[in-house]
Backbone:
């Protein structure tokens, strides 16, 4: 019996199992590396756009392409009654920051009626913790009634979480939602609104909200660690298959020699 027969032909099940482990490990490792690369590219793009001149939505009618990831100024009045609380959102912790990163809470989405216009800009005002004992109790947040000037960064949406089914209508207040759909809001209210949301940047404002937004590159090291673990699993599967095959081959050689 030659070594090829000992390693492959007589060990079809073991070979197939090892192949599955290797393919899964390498595939998952490559996916983790790709996710890290995507975050790095996103961080570089955002960093470059943040250095560009600030835009003012009260002066220019901006498209999503023009505004995306750019710094934005907006002057208007918040519409408290139409607030949307996005559930199951983790506390934002910046790179190198400390805090209860695993703490769950809400993003507060609130429409801002632009000063002197009928146009609406949806603003992600920040994060607030939820009451774990009473899950429908909303956290106390201060909202001024007068016209305010806010600054933030424009995004297509505030981020999405997994949700069963597709929402096609808006329910009564208070609105606690899993996700936020700009098109659905415009259809429901029938108002003119800008095609992006503004993630407010002022982390010093004392209104009960947290705005320590993390960098897009947060978690890159974790992706590299996960990739290493998956590649290590693939290598372990291959070495286990190879070593056991070689040991089997040596036993067969010894057995054949004894019979000779």
Residues:
């Amino acid at each position: 019996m030659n070594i090829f027969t000992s390693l492959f032909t007589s060990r079809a099940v073991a070979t197939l199992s090892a192949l599955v482990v290797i393919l899964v490990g390498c595939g998952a490792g490559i996916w983790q590396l790709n996710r890290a690369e995507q975050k790095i590219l996103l961080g570089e793009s955002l960093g470059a756009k943040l250095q560009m001149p600030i835009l003012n939505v009260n002066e220019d009618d901006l498209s999503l392409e023009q505004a995306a990831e750019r710094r934005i100024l907006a002057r208007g009045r918040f519409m408290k009654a139409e607030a949307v609380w996005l559930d199951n959102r983790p506390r934002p912790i910046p790179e190198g920051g400390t805090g209860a990163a695993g703490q769950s809470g809400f993003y507060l989405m609130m429409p801002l009626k632009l000063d002197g216009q009928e146009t609406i800009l949806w603003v992600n005002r920040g994060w607030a913790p939820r009451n774990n004992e009473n899950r429908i109790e909303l956290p106390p947040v201060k909202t001024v009634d007068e016209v305010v000037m806010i600054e933030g960064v424009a995004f297509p949406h505030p981020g999405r979480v997994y949700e069963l089914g597709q929402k096609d209508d808006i329910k009564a207040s208070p609105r606690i939602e899993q996700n936020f759909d700009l098109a659905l809001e415009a259809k429901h209210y029938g108002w003119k609104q800008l095609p992006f949301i503004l993630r407010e940047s002022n982390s010093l404002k004392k209104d009960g909200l947290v705005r320590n937004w993390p960098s897009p590159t947060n978690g890159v090291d974790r992706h590299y660690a996960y990739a290493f673990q998956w590649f290590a699993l693939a290598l372990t599967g291959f070495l286990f298959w190879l070593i056991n095959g070689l040991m089997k081959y040596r036993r067969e050689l010894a057995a054949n020699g004894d019979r000779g």
Remarks:
- The radius of gyration is 27 Å.
